[in-house]
Design brief:
Shape: globular
Strand content: 25-35%
Order of helices and strands: EEEEEHEEEEHEHEHEHEHEHEHEHE
Helix content: 10-25%
Distance between the termini: 16 Å
Largest sheet: 7 strands, mixed
Radius of gyration: 21 Å
Oligomer: single chain
Low-confidence stretches: none
Structural class: alpha/beta
Number of strands: 17
């Protein structure tokens, strides 16, 4: 095979706090690189071809300045964007990794990569970061089953990947839903939110779910949400007053949704904080003590040892039985990956489904 173009997505400039990344200003495509597929040194590693990339909200957190304390390491300016993806192995010098294997995990957003990747990797030293900062580069590629036509590879970027796993571990570890209870989930049409709706319904819960467009409201209803609503047309407070009270809240956005949920939660209610869209004053914060609420933020790696076995035992079976489904909003071509990231982080658009970038066919 001749020398091949190796386009990649690069991190050009850090957005200001609470600013969304702009294509061309903060993230861009670099088409200058090439790679010799047959002869590039592997140095005991393996060469992968990128098939699927998965834009996810946590990528914005890695764009912050390293001086800002958070839960994860950051991207390196001028380096490649790193994120979850599905790859296939073209060559290997690593025991246990075979040509033709499918793998899922953190990878460089480029067409071909010698793994373990070097470009963009943070040389993580815990004493140089805030306590409990998670080293994202530790999320190495793992071999995943060949679907053999039973489901598309894009499912590894949605229900069978990080979004599905995030929902599963948070639901089982924090929400712990019970039949007859009521759950409110914000951003219910997102990859994580859609999974939460379905997990809750499988437990026999009533589900209230919010999103920012009527198309997404229809999607949430199709997933089984009992009271889906457009928060731009109906206030959180009015909907929760009508359909609540709630026993638990899955928080994907923070802000007004969280404050409204605090008001609607029953005593001893549970809150799983999965994401936030920015700072806001919380007039209802005093209710945390009065209602003895349990509020917990989390990241997936904390729960992997406890729940990863159950996830891979239960979720593929539920999907095969038609009890869990997912929609993917497919974008083709790595050149469109920067826009896919920016669009995913925006709100109020009409696109339904977990964003997925198809870089190449198998």
């Amino acid at each position: 095979m001749a020398i091949q173009p190796n386009p990649r997505v690069v991190f050009v400039k850090r957005p200001a706090p609470h600013q969304l990344p702009v294509v061309g200003e903060h993230i861009a495509i670099d088409k200058s690189k090439t790679i010799d597929i047959d002869n590039v040194p592997l140095n005991g590693g393996f060469l992968t071809k990128t098939l699927i990339l998965s834009p996810e909200p946590a990528m914005r957190e890695r764009m912050r300045d390293p001086s800002i304390v958070s839960y994860t390491t950051t991207f390196e300016l001028g380096g490649p964007i790193l994120g979850f993806g599905v790859v296939t192995v073209l060559r290997s010098e690593k025991e246990g990794v075979n040509v033709g294997d499918y793998m899922y995990g953190l990878t460089v957003w480029e067409a071909y990569t010698v793994q373990p990747y070097v470009d963009g990797r943070v040389q993580f030293k815990p004493d140089e970061w805030a306590p409990e900062t998670f080293d994202m580069d530790s999320l190495a590629l793992q071999t995943v089953p060949n679907p053999n036509g039973m489901y598309p590879l894009s499912k590894y970027a949605s229900v069978m990947g990080t979004p599905g796993l995030t929902a599963f571990v948070g639901f089982e570890g924090i929400i712990q839903g019970k039949e007859g209870e009521t759950l409110f989930v914000s951003s219910g049409a997102s990859g994580v939110g859609a999974m939460i709706i379905q997990l809750a319904k499988l437990k026999g819960m009533k589900v209230i779910a919010s999103a920012g467009s009527d198309v997404k409201v229809a999607y949430m209803k199709s997933l089984g949400a009992d009271a889906p609503f457009n928060y731009k047309k109906e206030s959180y407070e009015s909907v929760l007053a009508k359909h609540g009270p709630i026993n638990a809240f899955w928080d994907n956005v923070g802000a007004e949704a969280l404050d409204a949920a605090l008001g609607a939660l029953t005593p001893l209610g549970r809150v799983a904080v999965c994401g936030t869209s920015g700072p806001i004053l919380f007039p209802n914060a005093y209710l945390i003590m009065k209602k003895r609420l349990s509020i917990k933020g989390f990241i997936v790696p904390e729960y992997i040892p406890q729940f990863i076995g159950r996830f891979f035992a239960e979720v593929p079976a539920l999907m095969a039985q038609g009890k869990i489904r997912s929609e993917e909003a497919v974008v083709k071509g790595i050149e469109n990956a920067p826009k896919a990231i920016a669009d995913m982080l925006g709100s109020g658009h009409e696109t339904v489904g977990k964003p997925v970038v198809v870089v190449a066919e198998d």
